[in-house]
């Protein structure tokens, strides 16, 4: 049964990664790798800290280009990398759940994990790599700490292999998403507080040392590749770009506004907290009633008119994570001979802290809660332990409903697609970085026309920049990006990032040979600095396909075309 269910989930994801083209966020992630393939990491001007995640997959992209001979189909290849990482992390989660709850529960939770695609973007990014690595790290920690003392640190070994692999996952997670150091710290502190036996504390200390060692290796590697000065500049630039350190009040306001605009979901969240308290009673009758209530809440998310936090999948994660709070706390405060439930509760707590960490550090606030908090939602499906055979059946029904709701959300939301998108009406992109993906005919035509329009100006030089926010245009050409960020920033004149971009283009060698201006209705308005730069270029072609609009410019002193 488990291989069949999980195999179907993987097969569904294999199909899902071929659907949809996103010229915004996903292209932003891929543009780092694409830019490095064109000019190398050392010569890259990028200053966004998000690129540390893409450094993890860059060697695979180099191998892909070497085997294939070119970079066509790069986006689909990167999606395949995401799929592999998602399968690995779900496998770790399955291994953590089975010893406590059995194979059926482990299968359903792993299926739930596989079916969740953050932001509807099945691509390796700082979000997805951070989330999957966090799930893998915490799951393997639960596997290692839940075993007997002899298995945790076998004879002749300092740590069990599962704990070493957990530390490796943490190094990947914190490289991709540095704020995930917070849930790692929470994990160590919670474990030291809950497991007080000297042998257990010694093991946790060893584990923390292993994590610190591998994190140090990762930091040294980043400094070697990027340089310490550039790494610090990336932190400063990204902080100014996203207003991370100064925007916490704004993010809280954003969350409150979202709840105010979606009162039904706000009431469901309050009901989830009340349900979490009621589930602590842990009697057969209350478990059955609690499972029924949880199932209704999940169906409520599925039936909602509009999502609150970006997508119904994200809403479901937020809602489910709330339902495990008191059950996890009760387990931590009630010592038992079997330490496995206690370890699971510790992992839940670390993930819950991770959710609020990623929400606090992200530009979109609670939209990013699932990045750190996703594992908490998975574990909330099995907390507390079912007391009877009937309650086990009801719990499995709820888990199946959650999986179905997640699958529906994943296959009904295609980030970057304008309007309705169906497989029947889609066409396959034949070439370039987006080769192999299916999109609507208008977008496929827009990509083809823009690629031709940009490539026609190759005689002017090899440097390209995009104004108006459109990272996807960098993937439509063999030209190299000449930009500090492939996500164009229109900030005010007082912002450090704005001034850094202005200074960058003030150097003649950094000025692009060709400019693309994104003109569609969702494009970012041009700043004064953008317009000043644009004055040095002349328009050569406008491309309009449906709602998509863009203009190509070239240097005024250039008259040649390819």
From TrEMBL:
Keywords: Membrane, Transmembrane, Transmembrane helix
UniProt entry tagged with the keyword Transmembrane: yes
Transmembrane segment boundaries: 76-97, 103-121, 167-195, 207-227, 264-281, 288-310, 316-333, 345-363, 369-385, 397-416
Keyword Transmembrane in record: yes
Domain of life: Bacteria
Protein name in UniProt: Glycosyltransferase RgtA/B/C/D-like domain-containing protein
Upper lineage: Bacteria, Pseudomonadati, Pseudomonadota, Betaproteobacteria, Burkholderiales
